Amino acid sequence: IAVHLAVWHDLPYSDSTPLLIRTMRRWLQIVADLYNSEPVPGWTIERFSVAIDSLAATVARHPIAFCHNDLLPPNIILNSADGRLRFIDYEYAGVNYASFDIANHFCEWAGFDCDWAACPDKRERARFLEAYLGARQHASTVGEWELMVGEMREAPHLFWSLWALVQARHSDIPFDYRSYAANRLSQVTEL
């Protein structure tokens, strides 16, 4: 997966504006229009806004790349006949911070049940980053990427919680999106 993601991150792209912050701000405006001032207990519109601004300042120096942005297990397909790995579901693909794509992939190990204990430990994350950097032939070190991915650790929770709050009002899928948002936000402590 790490090697295949490195290939994605080396794809050429024309837009140089990462989608993370602008998408979260757009979703926050929708959430503000749909809900009262506190769409999830403990999370006011203002708190979301401050968290997004804090994240924007923190990740401004992170490298950008063409990213998948939704690498949950069902979006990763291994063809058993030829051994080739493929990513599917490109709905959220676009230019973004490579560190977000990696941090989000690690968070997605928890699944929709939000079993945070299922996420990779430090050793697994380091192995992933070693394979990733080996495939990208970067001068960066695993330590530098561990720091960037660590800085991005809470971003997927913020991103997908806003997505879930929008879905809670617009989706016909029978899923408790607001509880999912609250579960994701329970992992946000520093933003």
Mean pLDDT: 94
Q: Show unreliable segments.
A: none
What's the total count of β strands?
4
Largest sheet: 2 strands, antiparallel
Structure commentary:
The chain has helices at residues 2-9, 19-34, 45-59, 98-108, 122-136, 142-151, 155-170, 177-185; strands at residues 64-67, 76-78, 85-87, 94-97. The protein is mainly α and 191 residues long. The strands form two sheets. The chain has a two-stranded antiparallel ribbon. It has a two-stranded antiparallel sheet with strand order 2-3. Strand 2 and strand 3 form a beta hairpin. Helix 1 (2-9) crosses helix 5 (122-136), helix 2 runs antiparallel to helix 3 (45-59) and helix 2 crosses helix 7 (155-170). It is globular and about 50 Å long. The chain starts with a helix and ends in a 6-residue tail after the last helix. The relative contact order is 0.18. The mean pLDDT is 94.
Observed structural traits:
191 residues, mainly alpha, two-stranded antiparallel sheet, two-stranded antiparallel ribbon, 4 strands, 52% helix, 7% strand, globular
Itemize the secondary structure elements and their pairings.
Blueprint: H1 2-9, H2 19-34, H3 45-59, E1 64-67, E2 76-78, E3 85-87, E4 94-97, H4 98-108, H5 122-136, H6 142-151, H7 155-170, H8 177-185
Antiparallel strand pairs: 1-4, 2-3
Helix pairs in contact: 1-5, 2-3, 2-7, 4-6, 5-6, 7-8
Task: Give a short summary of the structure.
The chain has 191 residues and is mainly α. It is built from 8 helices and 4 strands, in the order αααββββααααα. Helix 2 runs antiparallel to helix 3, helix 2 (19-34) crosses helix 7 (155-170) and helix 7 (155-170) runs antiparallel to helix 8 (177-185).
